[in-house]
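Hey, quick one: can you model this chain's 3D structure?
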Amino acid sequence: MARTLGQPLVQPGQRPAKKRQRTAAPAGATETEIKLALPGAQGVSPDALAAQLARVPALARRKAVRQQVYSVYYDTPDQQLRRQRVALRLRRVGSEQPLQWLQTLKTAGRSDSALSQRGEWEMPVPGPALALELLHDSPWPGMDPDGTLAPALAPCFVTDFERTVWRVTARDGSEIEVALDVGTITAGHRSAPLCELELELVAGPPGALFSLARRIARTVAVLPLAASKAQRGYALGQADTPMAVQAQPPVLSRDASLQTMARSLLGEALQQFTANLHTLLGADGPELVHQARVGWRRFRSLWRLLRPALPGMPCPALPALQPLLDSLGALRDVDVAATQTLPLWTERYVAGDASRAPAWLALETALLDAAQQQRTAVRQTLAQPAVGAALLELSQWLESLETAALAPAVVACGGKRPAVRWLRRRVQRLLHRLERTWADAKHLPGAASPDAEGLHRVRILSKRLRYSTQALSPLLPRRLQRQHDVAQQWQTQLGTARDVAQASALAARWGAPPEVVGFLRGAAAAVA
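Sure thing. Here's the predicted structure for all 528 residues.
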């Protein structure tokens, strides 16, 4: 079955480029790579980016090869391939005759961190048409046993980019292909910029990828990027504006080791953090900031839950991330005040007196302007090499969890599934701690109202319980699963009071009239 490319073979204005100097992957090969976004690349030309990377000591004095790469991704109208986490593409490499055509099938793998490993079947084809009969040694025959899937395939999105490739051979014999891709992804009438660095392992252990990535990150700002080009192409086709990545807890097997569970849970949370940071580089949605912070809080909460089981694996100290976390927190505070808290209280403040409206509107405008300034500050922080270097260190640490030694307390749980028993006990202990903290905050001796500091601890513990029960839900008895909703209610109620108090503090900082500040302080006290 042959399906031809749905786009012109040679794009207008496309300049000649060399062929890609890479052999096709053998049947059944595993693609192992690290993908990195380049936060400081906005507005920088491909030539300037390539020159910047060429000055990195690890790539200096290595010949770079330029290639023009144009790919069409195929799927059925109801996206049967996407639902199976499969990507099928036809790629043209170069723009000079004879053109090189490659057909590639990629299957789902582990891609919840900087390191991605998945099945790849790539082979040359005669021209601009799929040659599915060549995929006989891949999973394709099992996916389409009766031949009904192939006729429904059609182009769904394309990528068009210039690729600059360096080949790096380390002293230990490891070989890595470093590829800078700069161009666009297009799905229907929507288009988005593409700018990323791929480090693909040709020979050697996966650790060689991290070693090279961290050497690059010493001088070039990078950001671990788990989403493939195919994932971003599908997302582009589904929404006009970039969507925030929300929590997607992995499916846990009760028979899995605790090390495997830890690696999977923490990897997904970190991926939520970095994915939203990547989208935030080019989009302004407040939800992106919120979900980035949720991802980080989930990571920290889950690690606090799991940490006693893995005493020999301390999480790296990451002071380089603190400026980013502080900047995100400041941006979130202003976003919430401007887009959620103030609009909620507008009518109550104005209360039929139109003369009160201008001061309120002026505060909203000032906070929206402040949010844009703070968003710029976040992007400037992301463009610092230290941030990407810290995230790569954290990603490499995650990979090492699989071989960590367990604490005796986990082994002592005994039974068929000691990991599940231990995790249930940890969640139960967290619940008891929350209940005790809530009781202490309500009954502070001599206080007319609950202890503010105690309520803050209740809010933090509510978040930790919510994230833990959400992530471990399949492993928990129903009585603990139900605590997720309870914790969310506590978090929401206490969070509302905190948001109004924060809005009053911001109003004072931005010079709002005393009557506006006083109203917000009163509102904060009323909902506390």
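One thing worth noting: Strands lie at 29-37, 65-75, 87-93, 100-106, 115-124, 154-169, 175-187, 190-203, 223-224.
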